[in-house]
Write a structure and sequence with these properties.
The model has no long low-confidence stretch (mean pLDDT 91). The chain has a single domain, classed as Rieske Iron-sulfur Protein, CATH 2.102.10.10. By secondary structure, the chain is an all-beta fold. The protein contains no helices and ten strands. It comes from Paenibacillus typhae. It holds the Pfam family Rieske_2. GO terms for molecular function: 2 iron, 2 sulfur cluster binding; metal ion binding; monooxygenase activity; nitrite reductase [NAD(P)H] activity; oxidoreductase activity, acting on paired donors, with incorporation or reduction of molecular oxygen. This is Assimilatory nitrite reductase (NAD(P)H) small subunit.
């Protein structure tokens, strides 16, 4: 499949409530999707970057940051970067809104044939 990107429609704008995570199966990846209080929508892999792992969809959103529910790591939803003093990164995916449809793009290297 190479480096082809794949776009998936994951719902409508109304499906995503402000500051509440939602788990969405998207091809081979389970996403945690969040709508911030300013209406922006972000998608990250629903996999905590902490060594012990865990889900992220149940985290608390404040501004553009996600506080993970198990270890209280602060994660920037825009980049997936864990903020100091912790370190790590969660996979983040581009989200677009087309009219009422919310779409996410996965890189082709993630898609298994």
């Amino acid at each position: 499949m190479g480096n082809t990107n794949h776009e998936y429609t994951i719902g409508t704008v109304q499906h995503f409530l402000p500051q509440i995570g939602r788990v969405i199966g998207c091809g081979p990846v389970e996403l945690a999707v969040f709508k911030t209080s300013d209406g922006q929508i972000f998608a990250v892999e629903n996999k905590n970057p902490h060594p012990k792992g865990g889900p992220l969809a149940e985290g608390i959103v404040s501004g553009h940051y996600l506080y993970d529910p198990l270890y209280d790591w602060k994660i920037d939803l825009r980049s997936g970067e864990v903020q100091a003093p912790d370190n790590g990164r969660v996979a983040s995916f581009p989200v677009t809104v087309d009219g009422d449809s919310v779409k996410v793009t996965l890189q082709g290297t993630l898609i298994q044939s």
